[in-house]
Amino acid sequence: MASQCSAEQLQKILWTFLQYDLRGDGKLELSQLGDCLRVLERNPSEASIRQHIQKLRASNAAIARISFDEFLPILESYPAIAATSTDEAAQFIDSLRMFDEQGTGYLPAGKLRRILASCGEPLSKHELDELLSNRINAQGLVNYVELIHAIIKS
Question: Which residues cross the membrane (predicted)?
Answer without folding.
Answer: none
